[in-house]
Amino acid sequence: MANPNPKEKWGSKIGVILVVASSAIGLGNYLRFPGQAVKNGGGAFMVPYIISFLLLGVPVCLSEWILGRMGNRHGHSTPNILRNFLSGFPLRFASTIAIIVPVVIYIYYVFIEAWCLSYAIDFITGAIQLAPEGIQKGTEAYTRTIVDNASKTFMATTGASETGLSFKGNILYYVLICYVINFSLVYLGISRGLESLAKKAVPILLLSSFIVLGRVLSLDGIEKGLGKMWNPDWSSLLKGEVWIAAAGQIFFSLSVGFGIILSFSSYLGKKDDVILSGISASSVNEFVEVALGGMITIPVGFLFLGATVASFGTFGMGFIALPAVFSLMPAGQLFGAIWFTILFIAALTSSISMIQPGISFLEEGFHLKRRYSVSYLFPFTLFFTLLIAYYNKGFIALDLTDFWIGTFLIYILATIQVILYGWKIGPQ
User: Hey, what domains does the chain have and what are their CATH numbers?
Assistant: First the structure.
């Protein structure tokens, strides 16, 4: 039975580079990287990070680009791409991991995307007020109270304080809004939807990030915060967990092992240069992560909150420490609104990329038209997102899913791809 959907292709080379770059530019760049750097020696973390990028990130990323382009004769869904290189039922069944990983990660990632949208709107409208009354500004008690208020707001907004739908505000409505936006864009296709969004979103992300970075660098005493970022603790390089954390961050940063690049590169022609495209997309992503994500979050966090910022972790850094910082700095509401708008756009471009492999699988595996694929995947994923939201006390469901799917299976899929590239395809 023929595929009922017309053959799609990228509108331009710069388009596919921006789509892949925007799929990788996400919360991992702006939140996870600063958290990992602060936790693992500051500037010293950059040594294993750069080594991991060159020895792990780039080779695995390029292997995905090449596998996707070579495997597109059977279609654009990841099982169809990998079937070119896998023989026998057990191995072909393993290719379904490339569908499980992006779709399941999307299920909980879109929940975090809704947090970003909620915070952006609350900062725009002035609904978030963390400053206490009756306590003198500039005192330790004043800062501590703001941080406590930010923590309570975060736990109430995300429903992490107890099991059930105990949310403050309209977070479930924001989840639904994110779903409608995401699936509407995916419905338009890779060129009119994903590529068109990337061409607009990436410049907006960069411009907005530079605006916030300019404000951060103009703060009095910011050199103290920058010192925490670039004055390395060399002793941390002797710790194995620092090197493991750096390698893990590279996987998250470049979105390798997600199955996304496999799907996107399958829309390229035989003569398209995947090496240049892959390195260009990776370079844009790394620039955003280090020069923007790290330079904004880490210095300003240390400047206002001191060494305690290292204890916040990924979510705490983004949704507790930074809202507290914005409440302490001049024009904080404006820059808080810009910052969380940046996070929302970054999460949006990443989340819609995670949907595409699932849509391609339904189109090719079950010969469904795109509108039916979207109609089926929308309620299926929404149900499980709400399930994670319901069991979100202490982020138990989210952390459990992230470990087994967003960490363990990513390494498994990346390993399969590297073996196929190294032993099945070879240098040619």
Answer: 24-425 (1.10.4160.10)
